């Protein structure tokens, strides 16, 4: 995969070496290739590895096939992608419910394949949503930006807010800290497992009470599989329409990734997107009118 990345440096004054290593997280082997091939230009000029890059200097990096070998996947349908934000490196889309974020098999078509068709290049998953969940999800458009976004995710610098319609009347605000592990009998499910589970933290805030249910905002501080679904169901507030954890039916799982925000790692611009879902709003409207009540 050959491509060039050009951007004005927003970072504090630093050397080329430290910029590539500490801010851009470029692996040692690729940094070596960049140096010996003179594929790092600052303001259009080749520079010494210890040269100072100042805020506003234009950095140009050129990567060859040996830096990032070509990765190809089948392309899907570009016209079904709803873009919430996009630039040369990052794309945030509104995922519909009922569609996987990425396939389990090389030939399986999922959201990743549709996004790659839209971008006309192979894209990369940063985080995922369950197939039944809709809403905002972030992808990298090249392998250069992927580890930087992964670090933001690990550092909890990508903020994700979900809306859910939960059974019963929830507390106004609550923090769930239950550890989550695998279900021993059902591989599809997760359970609260205080002894062997992984730490999980969900902040839940009630937005509105609706006919024996609550519209809640959930903020993830960790990213465990089915985290919101397990935390809410464990405390008696299973998400309506959840095929695994709830007996209250609806035409879809009532969980939606409502908003996503982060500081762009190359420009330091604050990016915030809000995703809408017609199907979520339709079920919510029916619940308000008691159509689904009990």
UniProtKB/TrEMBL annotation:
It catalyses: a uridine in RNA = a pseudouridine in RNA. Keywords: Isomerase. Its EC number is 5.4.99.-. InterPro entries: PsdUridine_synth_cat_dom_sf, PsdUridine_synth_RluA-like_CS, PsdUridine_synth_RluC/D, PsdUridine_synth_RsuA/RluA, RluA_PseudoU_synthase. Responsible for synthesis of pseudouridine from uracil. Residues 89-233 form the Pseudouridine synthase RsuA/RluA-like domain. The keyword Isomerase applies. One of its GO terms (molecular function) is isomerase activity. This is Pseudouridine synthase. Belongs to the pseudouridine synthase RluA family. PROSITE patterns: PSI_RLU. It is an enzyme of class 5 (isomerase).
């Amino acid at each position: 995969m050959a491509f060039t990345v050009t951007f004005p440096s927003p970072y504090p004054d630093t050397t080329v070496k430290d910029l590539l290593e500490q801010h851009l997280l470029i692996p040692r082997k690729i940094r070596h290739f960049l140096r010996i091939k003179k594929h790092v230009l600052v303001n259009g000029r080749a520079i010494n590895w210890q040269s100072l890059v100042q805020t506003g200097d234009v950095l140009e990096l050129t990567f060859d096939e040996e830096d990032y070998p070509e990765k190809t996947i089948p392309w899907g349908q570009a016209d079904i992608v709803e873009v919430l934000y996009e630039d040369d490196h990052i794309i945030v889309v509104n995922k519909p419910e009922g569609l996987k974020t990425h396939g389990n098999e090389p030939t399986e078509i999922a959201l990743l394949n549709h996004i790659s068709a839209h971008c006309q290049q192979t894209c990369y998953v940063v985080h995922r949503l369950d197939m039944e969940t809709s809403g905002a999800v972030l992808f990298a458009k090249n392998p250069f930006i992927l580890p930087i976004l992964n670090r933001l995710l690990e550092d909890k610098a990508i903020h994700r807010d979900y809306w859910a319609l939960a059974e019963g009347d929830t507390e106004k605000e609550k923090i769930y800290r239950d550890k989550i592990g695998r279900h021993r009998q059902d591989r599809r499910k997760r359970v609260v497992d205080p002894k062997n589970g992984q730490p999980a933290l969900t902040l839940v805030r009630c937005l509105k009470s609706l006919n024996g249910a609550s519209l809640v905002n959930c903020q993830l501080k960790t990213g465990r599989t089915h985290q919101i679904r397990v935390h809410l169901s464990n405390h008696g507030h299973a998400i309506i329409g959840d095929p695994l954890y709830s007996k209250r039916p609806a035409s879809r799982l009532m969980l939606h990734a409502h908003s996503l925000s982060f500081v762009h790692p190359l420009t330091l611009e604050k990016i915030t997107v809000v995703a809408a879902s017609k199907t979520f709003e339709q079920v919510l409207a029916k619940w308000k009118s008691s159509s689904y009540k009990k």
